[in-house]
Write a structure and sequence with these properties.
41% of the residues lie in helices and 17% in strands. With 98 residues, it is of the alpha+beta class.
Length: 98
């Protein structure tokens, strides 16, 4: 992994730790910084990072604290406190075979 990718991973870890400590502003700063690093180096953000951040307000999402997570018809709906929705599909692993 290149230097920019390693920095993005480190910023993701720092954002997660800051959000866990209740410092939302610092977590938002790390998320914005990671997005900027990815943009400048033409990298896509890791899937875990994209799914745990809000595209509208750059908050690090913590279900139950600042995000609501619901399952609807084969997709997950994550709603941030700012009102933004993120949807992504999931695969139902329960089989109907008896």
């Amino acid at each position: 992994m290149d230097v920019a990718g390693e920095r993005i991973e480190r910023l993701h870890d720092l954002a997660r730790a800051a959000a866990a400590d209740g410092d939302a502003d610092r977590a938002r700063y790390y998320v914005r910084l990671a997005r900027r690093v990815a943009e400048r180096n033409r990298l896509t953000l890791p899937l875990a990072f994209r799914r745990s951040t809000c595209d509208q307000c750059d908050a690090y999402l913590r279900p139950g604290a600042n995000a609501r997570v619901r399952l609807r018809d084969g997709h997950v709906v994550v709603t941030c406190d700012c009102g933004a929705h993120a949807r992504y599909p999931y695969e139902d692993r329960v089989s109907d075979e008896d």
